[in-house]
Design brief:
Shape: rod-shaped
Strand content: 25-35%
Structural class: alpha+beta
Largest sheet: 8 strands, antiparallel
Helix content: 25-40%
Strand order of the largest sheet: 1-2-3-4-5-6-7-8
Number of domains: 2
Number of strands: 8
Distance between the termini: 94 Å
Order of helices and strands: HHHEEEEEEHEE
């Protein structure tokens, strides 16, 4: 309504004709000097009138080249109101179009933000999947598969004999090739719960296939995914949490075997029991209650 009032006031100002200035009456008697002085303003008035006529002609020509009167120039209030109403409708249509475009732009911006957030989540999941080494990932459920093979060969042993131990049936000749360790490990994780099972195959004392490790765990994870959990409770067949060499992965160790001292204390690295372990910043801890009968290696 304010816009329509302004448009109506503008059209009324254009349609109102300019009022002529009243001219003072000429005196009946005048002296020659007054006639001479009066002739100058008359000439000036004639020149001003001619200039005004020329300007009005230019203005009328520029406003209406064809000589037709401009719309609303007649000063008809009904015509002015119709023109104002038409302009108001155009303004309202323009406002509606602007509002529609603004809402469409806001919707596109929301869709773009949602797409960017989904892409960021997908990239984060892919980064976590690559860091964990998972074979596949389905929501919060992840499964990873790993394994390694260690082969050994003894080319000469002074104590070897080309005979058989009759009590065990094993050859006394130690010059041979063998599979020291062949491990296949499957790990699964779902939220705070996880589990693993590891199979071992070797030919140290003849062909043997067995389960070397298997455990289930519940953890209180740390804020940093790469850091160890604050608390993690596990039960099953697991590595004995003692020292450094027993907990060291076989494929990380420089030599195939552990030191003689650790092999004398712990002939096997795995035992059945329950364990609580975790870490905070630079601290690491592990407490376990085991059967005390390590599985032979």
């Amino acid at each position: 309504m304010a816009r329509r009032a302004l448009l109506l006031a503008g059209l009324l100002a254009l349609a109102t004709p300019a009022r002529a200035q009243p001219t003072p009456p000429a005196s009946a008697a005048s002296s020659p000097q007054n006639d001479a002085n009066a002739s100058k303003p008359a000439a000036s008035d004639d020149a001003g009138a001619s200039n005004s006529a020329a300007k009005s002609g230019v203005s009328s020509d520029s406003a209406s080249p064809t000589g037709a009167p401009a719309p609303g120039a007649s000063g008809d209030p009904a015509a002015l109101r119709q023109a104002v109403d038409a302009l108001g409708r155009k303004v309202d249509d323009a406002d509606r179009q602007i509002a529609a475009q603004s809402s469409e732009l806001a919707r596109l911006r929301r869709d773009l933000d949602a797409e960017s957030a989904a892409r960021a989540r997908a990239e984060e999941e892919a980064r976590k999947l690559a860091a964990s080494g998972a074979l596949f990932h389905l929501g919060r459920f992840a499964v990873s598969l790993s394994g390694f093979l260690q082969a050994d060969g003894v080319l000469y042993d002074q104590a070897s004999q080309d005979e058989i131990n009759w009590s065990t049936g094993q050859p006394l000749n130690e010059s041979r090739f063998l599979i020291r360790r062949g491990r296949l490990r499957v790990e699964a994780e779902y939220g705070i719960a996880s589990g693993l099972i590891e199979f071992d195959a070797n030919t140290v004392n003849g062909p043997v296939a067995r389960i070397s490790a298997g455990e289930v765990s519940v953890k209180w994870p740390a804020h940093d995914p790469s850091a160890p959990p604050y608390v993690m409770a596990s039960i099953g067949l697991m590595r004995i949490p003692f020292g450094f060499e027993v907990l060291q992965k076989d494929y990380v160790r420089l030599f195939l075997e552990r030191s003689n001292v650790m092999r004398a204390l712990f002939p096997g690295e795995f035992d059945l029991g329950i364990r609580v372990q975790g870490g905070w910043r630079f601290l690491r801890y592990a407490i376990a209650a085991m059967n005390g009968n390590p599985a032979g290696d």
